[in-house]
Amino acid sequence: MKYFHSSQPKNDLMEFFDDPKNFGESEVKSGRAWTIDELRIKSNSDLHKLWYVLYKEKNMLLTMEYNAKQEVEYFPSPERIDKVEISMENLEAVVRERNEAYYLLETGKTGERPHDWKEDPFGRFECVPLKEHTIPMKENEEFLENELFPTMETVNPTVPEFLLKLREKERNVKRHEKRIQRKHIKKLFKAFPNMDMEALQEEYPDIDVYQYKKYLEDRDEL
C-alpha cells in the first residue's frame, strides 16, 4: 500500500537555496511585492499560506545573500529581499486590520496590546508594549525602588551629558541632510527652470523651496 499525502515534497536543505538554474546569473527576474489591496480580498486561510511561502522565500534569499558574501560573489537581484519584506509587512497590516475590526465589533476595543512610553537607561524614551507582572506593583519592592522611585545611586550621572551630545549629533545630522537637499534642489532649478514647485515642495517638506528659489534668484545663482 502506497502512502499518500497532499503536502509539498521536501527537498531537505535545498529549500534554503535558490533554483540551481539561477546560480551564476547576474539577474534573476521576479515579480513585484503584494499590495495591501490585493491581500485584503484574500481569505484568512490564503493569508496564512502566503505568509508561510513568503517566510520560506525570505529565508532562502537571506541564505543565498550570506553565502554570496562568504564566497565574495555577486548576489543577483538583491531587491528580491525588499519585495518579500514589503509583502510581509503589507500582509501583517491586513491581519492587524481584521483583528482590530473583530475586537471592535465584539468588545469595543482594538485588541492590541497597550503601549506606553518608557525611559531607557540612557534617558531616551521609547514606546514599548505593556506586559503583566508576576508580582503586583505595590508588593514589588525592586520595581518601586529602582524604576518607579529611583534613588541617586540607581540614576546614571552621565545621562544628562549623553543626552546633550546625542541631541547635538541629531541636529548636525539634520543640518547635513538639509544642506544636501538644498544642493540637489539648486541643481533641479538650473536643469528645470519651470518645474512644478508644488510637487517639489511635497517631496522636500523640510525646506521652503519658494523662499529658497527667491534667495537664489536674488543672488543671481540660477
Overview of the molecule:
The chain is 53% helix and 5% strand. The protein is mainly α. It has a two-stranded antiparallel sheet. The protein starts with 35 loop residues before the first helix and ends with a helix. The mean pLDDT is 84.
Gyration radius, rounded: 27 Å
Strand arrangement, largest sheet? 1-2
Low-confidence stretches are: none
Number of strands: 2
Which overall shape is indicated by the principal axes computed on the Cα atoms?
Answer: extended
Number of helices: 7
- Terminal residue distance: 84 Å
Reading the helices and strands in chain order gives HHHEEHHHH
Query: Main beta sheet: strand number and arrangement?
Result: 2 strands, antiparallel
Helix content: 40-55%
Pfam families: MRP-L47 (PF06984)
Subcellular location: Mitochondrion
Keywords: Mitochondrion, Ribonucleoprotein, Ribosomal protein
GO molecular function: structural constituent of ribosome
Note the topology:
Layout: H1 36-40, H2 44-70, H3 79-106, E1 115-119, E2 125-129, H4 141-148, H5 159-191, H6 197-203, H7 209-218
Antiparallel strand pairs: 1-2
Keywords:
222 residues, mainly alpha, two-stranded antiparallel ribbon, mitochondrion, structural constituent of ribosome, ribonucleoprotein
